[in-house]
Request: fold
Amino acid sequence: MIVSENPAVALRTQFEIDVRTGLCHDGQKTLPSKYLYDALGSTLFEAISLLPQYGLTRAEERILRGCSRDLVRHLPGRVMVSELGSGNGRKTRRILQALAANEPVSYYPIEISRAALDACEAELGDMERVSIVSVEQEYLEGLATVAGVRPAGSHLLVLFLGSTIGNFAAGDDARFLREVRSFMERGDSLLLGADLLKTPERMIDAYDDPLGVTAAFNLNLLARINKELESDFNLRAFRHEARFNHVSSSIEMHLVSKTRQTVTFPQSGFAVAFNAQETILTETCHKYTRATLAELAAKSGFWVEAQWVDDKWSFAETLLRAS
Ligand SMILES: C[S@@+](CC[C@H](N)C(=O)[O-])C[C@H]1O[C@@H](n2cnc3c(N)ncnc32)[C@H](O)[C@@H]1O
Reply:
């Protein structure tokens, strides 16, 4: 297990700064989506992935079940695998299995969520010829760590699954992938899972299920803030809303203030006023097309080596090669 020095202290301080920055300015209030994944948030995300309305995870599972052997044929030499935001790693089993059939594999899941890493180790810890080194760091910090222990002559396969790439704001996805590319060598591979554009109704349903699991996942962010920053959000005074933004081609998750209210942060010395119906944007989930994925690859220093698309739920798994 690799962790940064004093990760809890560093994270709390940064958390406080990010919450304050996101809530205390004119215009749309925001909170970074990475903070949705505390222990309860990670568990709720696992539940979301089982919902009939949330087709992304099952689509990616189907693709990986079908393409993993083919994928491995595209990877030259001795492969080292790292995954950005592995979650519980369940889908990754297929890829590791296919690779381990040839030779032993080292797998480095990179996560900010300790709970997700624990779930990942429990999920994949039984695999023969697969050694797991968990990296409890942010994506790029973790990738720097992985690049630093990479054996000479190995091929690096970076996994970025679950359409997490869609959580970056427009333009930031390419900037992020360029940074990822900077830790890779020419010829290395990036397997990118991305949800494709479909009807707004289908997309909204995926982020606003009738059981209210996604609503709980979203509202839990306020509970986390209350717990860690000792603020006084009244969770019953906010509701979850999923919207499709046609301009940015993104689903947006909002928390809507039901009334005019003020939330206080006595330990941090600030307060936040909300108008009735004012919202906090907590997550953006961009929806791609095959053409926009190819553009994204070209802008980020990759070319498209292979692509697999699910026919029941339009989702693309794209194998990118670092140019
Ligand atoms: C949408 S979930 C996807 C999980 C998994 N890859 C899947 O496909 O089901 C995103 C995951 O990335 C992690 N994550 C989010 N932001 C991160 C960051 N900045 N650095 C490292 N991990 C992050 C979260 O904890 C979460 O487990």
